[in-house]
Amino acid sequence: MNQTAVDQIRFCAFCPNLCRSQYPRSGVPQREYMAPSSLSYIGYAVLNDLVMYNEEVATVLTKLEACDACKIACLYNYDIPGHLRALASELKSGMVSKGDLVTR
Amino acid sequence: MKETSMIDCQGRTHDWNAEPWFQPLCEIVGNENIVTKFAERMAYGRDRWPCANLKYRFGKFPGPEPFLVTVPGTYEEVAEVVKLANKYIIPLVPYGLGSGGAGGALPAPNGITIDLKRLNKLLEIDKISGLATAQAGMNGELFEAELNKQRLTLGHFPQSLTISSVGGWLACRSAGQASSRYGKIEDMVVGIKAVLPDGRFLEVRPVPRRAAGPSVKDIFVGSEGTMGIILEGTFRVLPYPERESIHAVGFKDYLIALEALRKIMQSELRPAVVRLYDEHESRAKIANFPEYTNHPCLCMLTFMGLKDLVEVEERLALTICKELGGVEGNPEPVYKWMERRYEALSHKPIFERRMMDTVEISAPWTALPEIYERMMEVVHTVDPEADAGAHWSHMYPDGACMYMTFKFSAPEDSPTAAKHGKIWEGVMEVCLKAGGSISHHHGIGYFRGKWLVEELNTGHDLLQTLKDGIDPKNIMNPGKLGFK
Predict the structure, then answer these.
(1) Is A35 an interface residue toward B (CB < 8 Å)?
(2) What are phi and psi of B65, to 5 degrees?
């Protein structure tokens, strides 16, 4: 993952989901943990060794339906679902782990 | 509230089936609407309280770990969950869209967070009576958008419009940017449905007014989940404004500007958006407009409604401004603000490793200047490098809201928290001593509880007695609003 993607995930992790009005419009099940910033926070937390990467975390990072729905409304034009997919893939394959990229 | 390390929480296991209430809970809402996985529960450990996000930056929950979350889909399911919680004395925390700024939605120890987002429908629009009913979990922006399709408006435009819920508005007693014209949420809501802490339904039928005892509705509006769970609200709605006019006026200093705004409000004029910025907050907005050079305090004024009414109100208001030395200039700063008026800004400082927080108070006109000067003094005494400024909005004939924003460098957790706490102690003391209210519209949550007790004094005892009466087991959002 490049630093830009990591920075955007970190930004999204602390954003109050300004995109979230798209979430109910999409018809995706209404769960806070599927909101983009919740998922981005998990990515941020794993990269900073604040949370362990395990099967549960890996599964949650695949639940991107709401994130896909909200992408169109991102004020910053970030591709958060794309970044999270890339991160999930790299975490799964061991290509990236804690401390690889400065995020904190 | 003791913070907890996320990684420690993640490492713990819990046997849910050993809880006597777990299976009954699954039967009420369905297994698919129970959230037990740690990685999913993490989302419910914070709201927009800056301290909560600071803790998240360092991998800590700002309070207890979210223990379990349920997502009911009907009013009956909510009531049954509450009855179950009552039976087993399990704390309950209602969660809308998590946009509160004072920790009101933080989990309770070993409690259940109730995510209300499935209750997100617009139920009815009565165009004749000008009423609309929406469920608590409905996104504010979507509610307004549905009204607009019918050429109606609620007139409620908080900065958090896109990230807040109808139930959250009611629970937090919110105010929108056009409140000087349209009123606050308590002026707009005429009926509610809720679930009491013992699981009974409450309905306050929507009528224009009643002299039928003290207002039951107002027990819930502003209760922040401590008196029960709001399910829906019925609101007065108005025709979409025929015209909106936008003006920017520069003043030599904030004192003369406040004087102009006082006269405008006491003339019974009703501008929609009224925002007066101090010199610090005006600076970037007027940098490219030389007409404001000698009038560095920017005042934004908008008027909305029937075309003829707008024309009269803007003419009279601008005359008052001019009489007090105000200079009307290019309204471009107002248009620029309007483009991003719903963009919350709290995440940018975190990204930049800074702490940013806001203090919004209300006070009579006579107290506002002293409060401003002394609050600014507090911030700069604690941190001479802090970036601080203020604006005044939400105007009344008798006073206004002052909204101060401060930012400082936050490289580490504990020193930042300590500095933040010191600033808050100081500014709250200033506000209380000057006779102001500690919160105009952000609410109390967890964070401001102790100052609320001081502001309301015997009034808080009264509220505590009420809470003890309807929630004797203290299951509803315990520890918030300064309650035991």
Answers:
(1) yes
(2) -65, 140
